[in-house]
């Protein structure tokens, strides 16, 4: 899962990124309104953790920009503002949750997990498609009750494809989801082919057939 944290307090930003990285998230940070806008326009995220008070603009303005541009990222506002009016304003603009500072990182993590469950798995910890089953909590994959052992990148790729099932996903989109902003430093996206090839092989060994398909010249699609 890919996370963006927009927070101008450097120590809190670093703490959140370190915590979620340890939990297996790909995390990126932004410390101003403009940095947040740039990140959201260039990349796609599963969840955005968003402070209200930012250099250069309000986090609420950033949230409004996000929703006006039909971006589907889940958003959790973190703010020192605890008034009911601020909470209502954030939720009315399209935030999924609102957490008042100070807070425990474990609570923030629980809220992010809950948001992801609602967004992708109808409130469950499990993503399913045909006989494919991904446990988001245990980070395990199985096909017809046979466990499929994947590397972290293969797991991230499969989750990304399943959350975009029946859509064609480009190699660039896959690269950005797995490596985030580091994608800009890559000479090519050839490594995506290797990850897809290995994932296809492991799934086929369990008898799932052509679940993951290559759409030549465009990218890849996960469908029955």
From TrEMBL:
Q: Which UniProt keywords apply?
A: DNA-binding, Phosphoprotein, Transcription, Transcription regulation, Two-component regulatory system
Q: Which residues carry this modification: 4-aspartylphosphate?
A: 51
All copies of domain OmpR/PhoB-type, residue ranges = 124-224
Q: What is this protein called?
A: Phosphate regulon transcriptional regulatory protein PhoB
Gene3D superfamilies, alphabetized: 3.40.50.2300, 6.10.250.690, Winged helix-like DNA-binding domain superfamily/Winged helix DNA-binding domain
Natural source organism? Dyadobacter linearis
Q: Which residues form the Response regulatory domain?
A: 2-116
Annotated transmembrane regions: none
For this protein, the DNA-binding region equals: 124-224
* Pfam families, sorted: Response_reg, Trans_reg_C
């Amino acid at each position: 899962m890919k996370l963006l944290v927009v927070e101008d307090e450097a120590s809190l930003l670093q703490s959140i990124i370190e915590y979620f990285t340890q939990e297996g998230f790909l995390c990126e940070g932004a410390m101003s309104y403009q940095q947040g806008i740039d990140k959201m326009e260039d990349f796609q995220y599963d969840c955005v953790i968003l402070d209200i008070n930012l250099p250069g603009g309000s986090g609420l303005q950033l949230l409004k920009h996000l929703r006006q541009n039909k971006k589907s990222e889940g958003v959790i506002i973190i703010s020192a503002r605890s008034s009911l009016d601020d909470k209502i304003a954030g939720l009315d603009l399209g935030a999924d949750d609102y957490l008042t500072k100070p807070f425990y990182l474990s609570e923030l993590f629980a809220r992010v997990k809950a948001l992801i469950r609602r967004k992708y798995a109808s409130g469950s910890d499990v993503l399913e498609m045909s006989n494919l089953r991904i446990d988001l909590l245990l980070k395990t994959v199985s096909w017809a009750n046979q466990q499929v052992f994947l590397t972290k990148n293969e797991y991230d790729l499969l989750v990304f494809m399943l959350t975009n099932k029946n859509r064609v996903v480009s190699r660039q989109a896959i690269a950005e989801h797995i490596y985030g902003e580091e994608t800009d430093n890559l000479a090519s996206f050839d490594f995506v082919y290797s990850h897809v090839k290995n994932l296809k092989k492991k799934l086929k060994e369990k008898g799932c057939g052509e679940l993951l398909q290559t759409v030549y010249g465009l990218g890849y699609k996960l469908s029955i």
